[in-house]
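Researcher: Quick one. two chains, 520 residues in total.
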Amino acid sequence: MATRTASHLTGAAPVLTAHAIRRSFGPTVVLAGVGLSIARGEVVALLGGSGSGKSTLLRILAGLDGEATGETVVHGTAAVVFQEHRLLPWKRVAANVGLGLSGPDTAGRIERALAEVGLAERHRAWPAELSGGQAQRVAVARALVREPDLLLLDEPFGALDALTRLRMQVLLRRLRAEHGFAALLVTHDVEEALLLADRILLLDDCRIAADLPVDLPPTRTPDDPGFGALRRLLLDRLGVPTT
Amino acid sequence: MSRTPLLETPPEVVAEAAPEARRPRPSRRWWRLVSPVALVLGWELAARTGLLAPEKLPAPSDVLATGWRLSRDGTLAVHLVDSLTRAGAGLLIGGVLALVLGTVAGLLRLGDDLVDPPVQMARMLPHLGLVPLLIIWVGIGESLKISLVALGAFFPVYFNTYAGIRDIDERLVEAARVCGLGQAARLRHVVLPGALPSLFLGLRLAIGAAWLSLVVGEQVNAQTGIGFLMMEAREFSQTDVVVLGLLVYALLGLISDLALRVAERRMLTWRRGLRAT
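Model:
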């Protein structure tokens, strides 16, 4: 049984540290002693091929897997955005964003969170009336309204079309600049990882196979010098031929 | 009627298709009334011309006249209230019991193991076939009728509660958990609303089963109720009252179904959005 501790964020301590995370499904080992640490305000992308266990790792870090072993410490609050929006179909958009929210001025906080993802006027809509991109933006607002120190993103744009995905990446970058949250972004999209992350972890063979800093300017494009080289390097490590 | 707004709308390409599709609909709907009305008229005609013997099947107008007479002297109301009381009590007992057991079996693994097998076995018994045994157990009084209704209502509510809870998307429960909802809050915000469509279906089937049970139950040594009214009328060959009783049963079923549909539409507004897209 994995221990997962949550405490208040103090000083420069990392938002998340994990040690010796192990998980197997029957005889198949998926994670064989994974450790990682995320600093305050740092965006880390977790890259890996399909079936490499990156979503499993994120679920463990989110405290959603009772059968993993290892130790996870989260300093501060964490919020999760899944690949599917997972909005409750029987609650209107605003109620979905405010799910489980307590404290003063919840209505105002919900309104501001929806405005930040550009859906302020849709607060009375049912989730079924939204497009895929809109629903995912509501899911982002639902995470954002909790003012998390750490955002756990499980292929959050994986189910969206290419154009919507690009818009969501821009949105996430803007929100991160405004709020300064740390994030762990699970993705199989090398370009997405390079566009959004400060550091890239490569999950391969049940372990963290590489830990690469991304030395690119904060507002980067695929045309930046160095982008192509990093992209080729990562694809090479993932076993994808680039020539 | 529908042509006037068509002329007023600006000549848009989109505006043309919609009325075109809508126009045949009202006429189609009227068509569905033709055969029932023809049947009733034919029945009336056959009774009036003596083709149907009045002791076999009286004219619909005679049945309505009898209904009017019995409602004016209060007889119908007395029997109706008694029947409704039995149905209500039985539904309440059977429904609540089924709701509790269905929830326990749906939510808890232990509950599933303990509760579900006996219920599945009991389901195979046609509950109306239990009348002789029930007479031995609870006698032929009021408790027999209520037990029968409760038994009839139990199974549909139980199975639909169980299925409704089991069919809830586990991923939604998980999402509620990461939003900080505790067990009680998850039950209230995820499980209950998620199972509600299924619960409504169960309730509708239960009400149908309740009326059916009532028809059978009230033919065993009843002193009041619509069923009694019909049995007594049969002894005196008052066929009009027998047919009236049938009509009342049918109306009760129709009204309860309609009421439930309205409640369903109000409480499940979110599904309309689902259907629209």
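Confidence is low (pLDDT under 50) at residues 1-22 of chain B.
Researcher: Thanks, that's what I needed.
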